[in-house]
Amino acid sequence: MGGFLHKALMILAVAGLSACAEQDTTSKDELVFEPTYDGVDTRLLEGDLVNFHVEMRDARHEADVNAYAECAAAQYALIRGYGFARHVRTTVEFQEGIWRGDAVYTISPALPRGLKTIDAEVIVFNCEENRIPTV
Description:
Number of helices: 4
Strand order of the largest sheet: 1-2-4-3-5
Helix content: 25-40%
Order of helices and strands: HHEEHEEEH
Distance between the termini: 71 Å
Shape: globular
Largest sheet: 5 strands, antiparallel
Structural class: alpha+beta
Mean pLDDT: 85
């Protein structure tokens, strides 16, 4: 019985040490992410094709700029009475501390064909939750 108790105590000790060894994997950048959203310029290109130019500062990477453009596209679709959008393309550049995105989306009342479709209401809700402004 003593051997069993000794093994059980060793297992508990190792488990306790491994729990102490776990570290918070949240990076400093994620904790202090406070970007500045400098605006959206929206242009109707043709029919249901819309171009969004976004600018922001203090983005962590291109994905933050893409999210900002997606939020603008989703809100624009809702303003126009549509429920969906489809991502066509986005280009992102970083120059002199400013991130710029040039995105094109189609907007539609029904779910469009394609892989990169978005439900505008869901996206706008997520943008509000993540404090990303829309149009």
